[in-house]
Amino acid sequence: xxxTPAPRRMRWWLIAAGVAVLAVVVLxxxxxxxxxxxxxxxxxxxxxxxxPAAEPRxxxxxxxxxxLSLPVLGDWLENDFGNAWIVTAATLEAAAAALDHAALDDxxxxxxxxxxxxxxxxxxxxxxGDQKAALAAFDPLLAGHPGPYADVVVDRALSPTPxxxxxxxxxxxxxxxxxxDRGAARRASGDMAEALAEVVLAAxxxxxxxxxxxxxxLLPAFRAVDDxxxxxxxxxxxxxxxxxxxxxxxxxAFEEWYRAETG
Length: 263
Description:
Blueprint (H helix, E strand, L loop, with lengths): L5 H34 L22 H18 L5 H17 L4 H23 L2 H14 L17 H17 L3 H25 L4 H24 L6 H22 L1
Helix pairs in contact: 2-3, 2-5, 3-4, 3-7, 4-5, 4-8, 6-7, 6-9, 7-8, 8-9
Keywords: Membrane, Transmembrane, Transmembrane helix
């Protein structure tokens, strides 16, 4: 398992702190704007100060979060393809979360498995530098989930321990397969795909000189987890054993590459 050095762990806390600071700045800005507005209105001195309004919108469902990620990904594929790997991982994570959410319903699981496979195809094309293929793979994804969902808020919080999370979820997936627990294997495969997406985001921060290469190095693991999901779609959990073995080998190969890149 990758042991994230203290300076890199600190980056995640800094990111979290930055988000908190941004929220405070927004709230302060709203308060200042309200104060200035009150000063221009009659009887402003008699009006009690107003607190910043709480976020009224509900949290997005996994399906909504995925749909909201698509226009962002599409814009980068069209207009900044060379850096599209930056947002590809976010859509991979959103698709994995939706697949995880649908794990126990056969119809929904099959639908989201096909969607996840489509996102992996986009990621393959991005990694290969093939914009035409990426857009061709993206078009049916957008057609299937046109949105919009402007009345919800997407939680984009990242784990402070993405590498540890991935290792633990891989172990849980292997345990579910060994126990022949099909439902647990489905849920664990979705969890693993989400964890891999967060590893992409974390490693891109840790290796800024080859951030695009991170996605390339982790694509074999995404393909392997996709094979696991295919196996448990209609078959028994034990049918995913070979794919799980390939997944572990792919993830360990990434860990070796990561250690070589980060020294």
